[in-house]
Amino acid sequence: MSRPEVVARLLAALGDRVDTTESALERARADKSGHAATGRPIAVVRARSVEDVQATLRIATATATPVVTRGAGTGLAGGANAGDGEIVLSVRAMDRMLEVRPDDLLAVVEPGILNADLNRALQSHGLWWAPDPASREISTVGGNIATGAGGLLCAKYGVVRDAVLGLDLVLADGRLLHLGHRSVKGVTGLDLTSLVIGSEGTLGVIVGATLKLRRLVPGEVRTLAATFPDVRAAAAASAAVTAAGLQPAIMELMDAASLAAVHALLRLPGPTPGAAQLTVQTDGPAAEGEANAIGAVLRTAGGTVSIARDAADGEQLLAIRRAMHPAMESLGTTLIEDVSVPRSALPAMFDEIDRIERAYGIAIPTVAHAGDGNLHPNFVFEGPEVPPRIWDAADDLFRAALRLGGTLTGEHGIGVLKRRWLADELGDDQWQLQRDITRVFDPAGILNPGKVFAS
Amino acid sequence: MSRPEVVARLLAALGDRVDTTESALERARADKSGHAATGRPIAVVRARSVEDVQATLRIATATATPVVTRGAGTGLAGGANAGDGEIVLSVRAMDRMLEVRPDDLLAVVEPGILNADLNRALQSHGLWWAPDPASREISTVGGNIATGAGGLLCAKYGVVRDAVLGLDLVLADGRLLHLGHRSVKGVTGLDLTSLVIGSEGTLGVIVGATLKLRRLVPGEVRTLAATFPDVRAAAAASAAVTAAGLQPAIMELMDAASLAAVHALLRLPGPTPGAAQLTVQTDGPAAEGEANAIGAVLRTAGGTVSIARDAADGEQLLAIRRAMHPAMESLGTTLIEDVSVPRSALPAMFDEIDRIERAYGIAIPTVAHAGDGNLHPNFVFEGPEVPPRIWDAADDLFRAALRLGGTLTGEHGIGVLKRRWLADELGDDQWQLQRDITRVFDPAGILNPGKVFAS
Q: SS3 for A164-185, per residue?
């Protein structure tokens, strides 16, 4: 069927939910990765209900038209980028919290609700949803689930996989499935809820989620900043904290290049050349004692430590970390990488980054969620396309992470940007098996084609 | 191929790993559910290595012979029962801990290690693996993973799904896959690790596991016992504890019939007729304060509360709960049920049990992991087969749990005993989808046929 005929069918079924303005189509080509799809989608459907999603997918199946599901478009791997001939299915307007149950520590939400809006609404109930990607003010819960997003608090409070009880999923042919359960325990059949978490739009469209909540953590936080002569010392110190059996809520590492860029952006006095920083936060009833114990470990490891005892001072220390993304954008186009390694391998991974910087003659400003071993090396370059030389350096970086027992992506996903390395980590047999599983959900392959499993 | 020919092939490839003695074949017909398979398997292969498992599966595939994987045979749903013409693949002898990394909070183990043996070995490192099924002294880690086993500590410390980073899986055709990762975070491809957890031998044979560990919890435990005039009051009190934002490590509920049976078995003075009991344990640095706060909630809810301040006295209180399974066995043949409901629905579920007891004229002694809403109603009867009338009552019970937003099985699995209700919970579309996923792993359907998805 011709593209105008597909659009006509969508308009007939969905009326004003269908947006074909140039600006809407153009915006749907890109996410926050800096990468954009080739060509332009044919329409953006702004679903307001499960029925809208089902109607869109029935038309897509009947006309064999590919569908790219989209939330707020804040992804960092190109997973929601829509290109030539595709239908964009936006669930951003489905943003209601349908139910909150403090007694059962759960909430039922639509996928388009922003992470931060959800948490503001939960606060009055004394509750929160733990996943806290740096994008939380602008990213949707559905997108967090589809990518398996992480954040700063994961080592102590878990990842998305630990915080979802059930999902409502519309299949490629428009059928609606209810996956998972509302109880704490449940092992009935295969755990399709977990399978859909992080599946990046390849299995179905998430139209509802039953979230596992936590009580707000009582007590005041304590925040430490520790400066080290070099990044390896900072990485070794963070590994020493974990090895000592201490569990901070947050433990962020910034290398010298990252600190310099942020200080310049925020017009702060320049940091000590070469020095790296750990920012650590403890929380809960034992926050004070834990902060002191962590401070002692960091000093023993060669750090110069300061402790902020109130939340405002602590937030100021963390503001430097939170300014990393805008600081990188101020330097040029950025490819934000996302490898994750066992915590003990963090110093060795920084050695590898140092080696790659020298081998390719480039700077790779790097921040890390040091508490969980997740690094974000930033490749900065001019122009809209990642140059081949940068991809070569990234390739070297990925292989180093795999050698150290790590993984290609800790929290951003594969999308389009890492699909060519996927089989290197999974092996060919598992790659094929995973792709065959997507075909059980989506036999015609219309859901987010070219993402994750495209070779 | 004839059965003797299959056995001959196994003997040629695996020699003394193959056991065809009558006693071995007979033992493999049953687990601890009280249910046994029809007929008898043709051989028990006692694998000592991954290669043994691969060799067995290659022969099974080549000869189209069904394979039932078995650990210690302590399951409660018949999932590991092997019947007519099947090969039993025992991984019980693969029981080594291959690696423990306190700095990365992980251990790599073979599947046959007993849960309690693992935890004794981890203790010297100051570590533990949280899943604690009541069977922990006799059940294997591989079996815990294959069934998605739970335990007493789940509300505070999570379920198996939260405690496994990666799995090594041998497919039906003998290929070995490495699923998951060693890092805290990892979203590379589909989460097949979670898919295999609780898959009850239908997707492949687990030959290795990378486990996520916790530090031993510091401090002394506090244990409370609270007596209530009836079971509904006890259930309402437990829901009130959760609703008050308190998080005990353990919160177990026993109804009057359970208490009576255990007191008789242990030759204790008879309990107050009709009375039900909650046994609650707090741990960690704040154990004392939490115990006092929980005690106050329980008293307000009408309970008579006593607090044990040392571990030995606390263990004595919990010993009554731990004697439940032998107490039931002393009454007759037992069908242990395993429904799970949202915590707030626990009182309503006890109302349903009361209704079913009266409707069918039977007693259903029930214990519950009240902290997470998981109930174990026990149907007791004479003889080896579950009578139709008991199945009718169980059917009524399952439907009541589903109506209350619950699930068929919280921690035991579907096995053979609940397969006829599986589609009632999943819906026909999801049932078929899940079954089709098993066929991606096992196209010929030789892995544990007749379990979980058999209609």
A: EEEEEEECCCCCEEEEECCCCC
What are the tens digits of pLDDT across the range A126-166? 999 999 998 999 999 999 999 999 999 988 999 999 999 99
The two beta strands, A87-90 and A43-46, are: parallel
The strand pair at B374-381 and B333-336 is best described as antiparallel
Which of B51-60, B282-291, B419-428 is predicted with the least confidence, judged by mean pLDDT?
A: B282-291
Contacts of A175 in chain B (CB under 8 A): 429
Given an 8 Å threshold on Cβ–Cβ distance, is A431 in contact with B189? yes
Judged by CB atoms closer than 8 Å, whether chains meet at B340 and A436 is answered as no
- Asked if residue A283 and residue A350 are part of one domain, the reply reads yes
Residues of A in contact with B191 (CB under 8 A): 148, 161, 194-195, 197-198
Q: Are residues A433 and A313 in the same domain?
A: no
**CATH code, A132:** 3.30.465.10
Residue A262 shares a structural domain with residue A160: no
The residues, ordered by sequence, that sit 6+ positions from A289 with a Cβ below 8 Å of its Cβ are none
pLDDT value at position B34? 84
- Which residues 245-284 in chain A show a CB within 8 A of chain B? 245, 247
Residue span of the structural domain in which B445 resides: 418-455
pLDDT score at A455: 62
Mean pLDDT of chain A: 95
Q: Which helix (H) or strand (E) is A378 found in, with range?
A: strand A374-381
Of the candidates A101, A147, A341, which has its C-beta nearest B183's C-beta? Answer: A341
Q: Which of A215, A231, A265 is the last residue of a domain?
A: A215
Same structural domain for residues B194 and B325? no
Residue A17 lies in a domain: yes
CA pair distance A166, A179, nearest whole angstrom:
5
Segment A347-357 mean pLDDT:
97
Mean pLDDT of A104-133: 97
